[in-house]
Amino acid sequence: MNTLQAPSAVVMIRPHQFRSNPETSGDNAFQTLPSRSLSDTSKTALAEFDGATKALRSAGVIVHVFDDTGTETPDSVFPNNWFSTHVGGHVALYPMSAPNRRKERRSDVIEMLKQKYRVQDVIDYSGLEHDNLSLEGTGAMVLDHIGRIAYTAKSNRADPVLLERFCTHFNYEPIVFEAKDSNGNDIYHTNVLMGIATEFALICLDMIVDPARRATIVQRLEESGREVIDLTADQISSFAGNAMELNGHQRHLALSARALDALTPSQIATIERSATPLPLTIPTIETAGGSVRCMLAGIHLNARERIIQ
């Protein structure tokens, strides 16, 4: 089974102070304010997180959990934005747009990766925050690890010069496109619009502004042997594109229960030809404007020895 696209291990950050982040609400149209008190919201998010990690582990996915006990990092539950890992032992650290999200980076996560996995180098782009440049990891970029393509929607969270630098270092081809929602807002992160698995891709083609670019993206996905599952804007609003293929006891597609409910029987049948849907119930966490894919920092590194949970 080809597992290059679907990692068997992830890092997740357990949020003890979860809340909607005012520093990111300006360009994240997916954010909504929870109806409960801050204390109730935080407790509910913590319970949702624990349920999600239990479901992932039951499916055979290795989950490395780190507790976030700070009060200044409301989006810490979404670690895929500040680091990524790559075949060959490479790790990247990314510059974040919102000042309070820059505090999410933590050395203990990187030290764990070095101890348990074979890490050759860590390329740190985070210093470019001082120049107000950002490239928010696998939120800003949806990576085809097999075809070596970095699909990237234009936004202030994906600086084009930084993207070129990443692609040069990590040997990806950038495919950049403009994407907007039905209100004309830029899609803030590519991974709410699009998710790439081994044998299929989830994407809302209607949100890609330029028809020629849209056709190119479909062509490149189909050339890679993937079936394109075209999502509607309403399905994107339910985070149906914010999914991640993982390798556990079998190949799974991790997504939220809300996202799975939004898919049609035909779309689910296409997914099930190569992956088993693994729905996680996280409605409170989704109020922060991200879903399951954002919660999972995939580990595409070789383990030093067999990891037992």
TrEMBL record:
Regions of compositional bias (Polar residues) in chain numbering: 18-36
InterPro entries given in the database record: Amdntrnsf_FN0238 (IPR014541)
Residue ranges, annotated region (Disordered): 17-36
NCBIfam families: citrull_CtlX
PANTHER family: AMIDINOTRANSFERASE (PTHR43224:SF1)
Name the record gives this protein: Amidinotransferase
